[in-house]
Amino acid sequence: MNPQAVNLKYYVVDFFLLINNDHPKEEGDEMVEKYDVVVAGGGPAGLVAAKAAAAEGAKVLLLELQAQIGGQTQSASWVPKDLLTPKLKGAVATKLKEVRLHALHEEVRVRGDLGAVVDRRQFDKLLAAEAASSGAEIWLSAPVRELLVTDGAVRGIRTEAGGWSEQIQAEVVVDATGARGEWSSLLLRKVLGKDWHRERLAFSNEYLMANLKDEKVAELIFTSYFAPGGYAWIYPLEKGFAIAGIQGIRIHPDAALDEFIGKQAPPRLTGAVPVAAFRSQLPLGGPLKQTCADGIIAVGGSAGQIYPLSGQGLRYALRCGEIAGRVAVDAVTDGDVTRERLSEYEQGWRSEFGSEFEVGGLLHSSLSVSQDRKMDSLLRALVGKPRLQRAFIDVFTGFKPMRALPVLLKDAEIARVFGRETVEKALALK
């Protein structure tokens, strides 16, 4: 295998003409191709898994439902500085030096080196370039319609668009399809026969807003009226643009964001207009109890690897994708792709992040009761305490939750907000 080779196939809706000297398929025809690892989903988790597997010498194919990599369900992400490798720094839209926290009656300004906002459209494309340079093939507009299962083990996938269909055999399928839509969460829905618990799903919507005054400041707005069990945000992007978003439990994300902008009327958005929308769905109930089965690994949103307190998932997607790609290749090399062998992946990511997900769940559950009163009390406790403010940011975002947790929860006022039982359980996980 030539590690520099990239076979990028574009499927055009009207003609489904395959480039690279392939020929149109008649309706009903079905090709069969074979790979060591097939990755379903071209988000960060899938792209890193594809890169890691291809870098080990495996024959890897990544399938992306949409017609492009990047920017389909999210337009920007706030990330910690240490997440940005030199190659990924080109996606930085703004380096944050201030974050404003708003509750119903309180406001706190946190200053310092607070990470960066990255343009996800560019960020994901840079990840795709790294996967491709490692030797992974990438097919666009290639939705996974079905898993190929033999004797209870996943042996590949079937991708289909219009009258064109193709079976792709694989030793291991990496499910990086996310948690939104009919063709997502393949392991959960197609193998385990389950679905996400709706009461623990957060729905979100973001607008790319144009015609704003430039401010290199992020804002987090906590309000149970517009965002129960969640929050709203404004992230700065390039000159004249920003992201306004909202997430919450049991909300209609489109109506909630429109109502928030219209009734809350953040001064920063005065005169701004939306030019794009990005919707998503986030499972906040914690990771799946089982994230692999015979021939398949779930990673990222499809595995529920989302930090419950804030809904952050990018940091986990990158690292868990890396572990998934490496374990998949090792299993293929050993000739054993059973759940028992692939459980090395599960053991790896749980040892790194299991406690973080538990802590995020405990704190989120606590703040979901009397949300407005507790957030007012929390912000009041942060006033004039820079070290405590930074600890709150690191715990809330999931950037460095376990390191900052003792600093935050050992403050008497904040401990009272979360309650003694929650504090004791969270600190025990540390």
Describe, in short, the structure shown.
The protein has 430 residues and is an alpha/beta fold.
Q: Give the total of domains.
A: 3
The major sheet is characterized as:
8 strands, mixed
Give the low-pLDDT segments.
1-28
Q: Give the C-level CATH assignment of the largest domain.
A: Alpha Beta
CATH superfamily of the largest domain: FAD/NAD(P)-binding domain
Cα shape? globular
What value does the average pLDDT take?
A: 91
Structural class: alpha/beta
Rg measurement, Å: 22 Å
Query: Which architecture of the largest domain per CATH?
Result: 3-Layer(bba) Sandwich
How many distinct beta strands?
A: 18
CATH topology title of the largest domain:
FAD/NAD(P)-binding domain
β-strand percent reads 25-35%
Helical stretch tally: 11
Q: Considering DSSP H and I runs of 4 or more, what fraction of the residues is helical? A: 25-40%
> Separation of termini?
45 Å
Give the H and E element order: EHEEEEEEHEEEEHEEEEHEEEHHHHHHH
Structural overview:
This protein is 33% helix and 26% strand. The radius of gyration is 22 Å and the shape is globular. The relative contact order is 0.15. The chain is built from eleven helices and 18 strands. Strand 9 and strand 10 (153-161) form a beta hairpin. Strands 1, 2, 8, 9, 10, 11, 17 and 18 form an eight-stranded mixed beta sheet that branches. A seven-stranded mixed beta sheet has the order 6-5-13-14-15-12-16, with helices on both faces. It folds into three domains: 30-70 and 122-196 and 287-356, 3-Layer(bba) Sandwich (FAD/NAD(P)-binding domain), CATH 3.50.50; 76-118 and 198-283, D-Amino Acid Oxidase, subunit A, domain 2 (D-Amino Acid Oxidase, Chain A, domain 2, 2-Layer Sandwich); 369-429, no CATH class.
